[in-house]
Design goal:
14 strands; 258 residues; alpha/beta; homodimer; four-stranded parallel beta sheet
């Protein structure tokens, strides 16, 4: 595998840089190496409940030295998307502190029309009034942006609805189709490239999910390197339709193939 | 039109027996005539926010003498459906007093599995926890019943989401397909026939909506008579694919064609 033309990396967070509360051995050094060698990178995550600053703070707790601007999540992808379209009035249906990522990027004004209804995994912020507000904005001309479209996730107290079903509800109510700006949509990878100012052929995605990370990146024209940490299962790799450009034991080994 | 074999009627409420707070002239007498002549009938409505007793009380206020058992709505259709299947544990996602229609017909038990998740136009009862409860019951094996699947309705303060989008959300989250027991589903008309103990060929539907009332009834094997009150528009009739068996000025004229 010739990586001579590589100028940047997209690096998955959970499962590649850390699992649970523990950094993957060698991950910190790998990131330092990439920075020293002049590679650009974005640490990507599909989180739609935490803002960039909160994620960067958590990475710092884990011992990483990653600048805030190198964290790229669906809310940041949405902000980048809005910047591209030149429209900036948005109604947010999100929870946690993710609204902080939109500060300065969009204006919210309950009394007038908005350009975008932006839906993330909103948890308890999903109410009949909030869904109805979103619905009315869409019927008045706003477009729908989905930060992700997962069906559900395993919360501590059991399976819990993610953003997907509520996005589908708004789609079916209005006849509009959401632009999904989370992994594995092509829009997410395209917007991450735009954020780095690099072309797909010069960027490699490093992830532990062969479908979401590697398949998604390849569909956007990038190469993908699979790591054998966290989610990795050899039988999944053997039976997968997607073929990664390389498979390495962990992100710590990235130096060995550059 | 030969109505010699007719033994019963399904009669739409809003637009056929009354509009707003006013009874259609001749409607009371028409119902009295049908009762005297020994015809069975059910007054049908797609309301999923009011129980049978509340609807009957409102009809009484308007001067009608209609027994409670002759009111048939999607909640009653659901109760009839549950009786047919012999399963009676249900989780209700409804609002208003519609839960009263389920008293005695189903048992609710938050701690164990249920047979059915039943979703109506639930208004403010739609919350993240209520949607999540419904979702978890479905993932644990319950089936989904939709009292209706309308997308939205015109509330006093503007367009508002109806049951449909939330049913679609639960369908997309679980991969299950809801049984719709409201008009214009065939199930609704079949269950109304079952409730009267009559066959489709002996029953006539009287309604003001050529698609929902007449088309729905015909699809269930009944004949349909369109009334020229309320929603009726001659151009809609002319361009419709559905051909009613007869068109009369109002339900008050039913005597003239029997």
């Amino acid at each position: 595998m010739d990586l001579g033309d590589v100028k940047g990396f997209l690096i998955d967070l959970d499962g590649v840089l850390y699992t649970g509360d523990t950094a993957i051995p060698g991950a910190r050094e790998a990131l330092s190496f990439l920075a020293e060698e002049g590679y650009l990178f974005r640490c990507v995550s599909n989180s739609t409940r935490k803002c960039r600053a909160t994620i960067a703070a958590r990475l710092e707790q884990l011992g990483f030295d990653i600048p805030e601007h190198a964290v790229f999540t669906p809310p940041l992808a949405a902000v980048r998307f809005m910047k591209e379209t030149g429209k900036h009035r948005a109604y947010l249906l999100t929870t946690g502190d993710v609204n902080r990522d939109f500060e300065g990027a969009c204006s919210e004004d309950g009394s007038t029309a908005v350009d975008y209804v932006i839906v993330g995994d909103a948890g308890d912020k999903v109410t009949y009034p909030s869904m109805n507000h979103a619905f009315r904005y869409l019927m008045e001309g706003a477009d729908l942006i989905a930060l992700e479209k997962d069906r559900y996730w395993m919360a501590p107290d059991g399976l819990s609805l993610s953003a997907g079903p509520f996005v589908t509800a708004l789609e079916s109510a209005t006849g509009k189709v959401a632009t999904v700006v989370g992994k594995p949509s092509k829009a997410f990878f395209d917007l991450a490239l735009l954020d780095m100012g690099l072309s797909a052929e010069n960027v490699v995605m490093i992830g532990d999910d062969i479908v979401t990370d590697i398949g998604g990146a390849q569909a956007a024209g990038m190469r993908g390197i699979l790591v054998r940490t966290s989610k990795f299962r050899s039988d999944t790799l053997e039976t997968a339709q997607v073929r990664p450009a390389a498979v390495i034991n962990s992100v710590g080994d990235i130096r060995t193939i550059l």
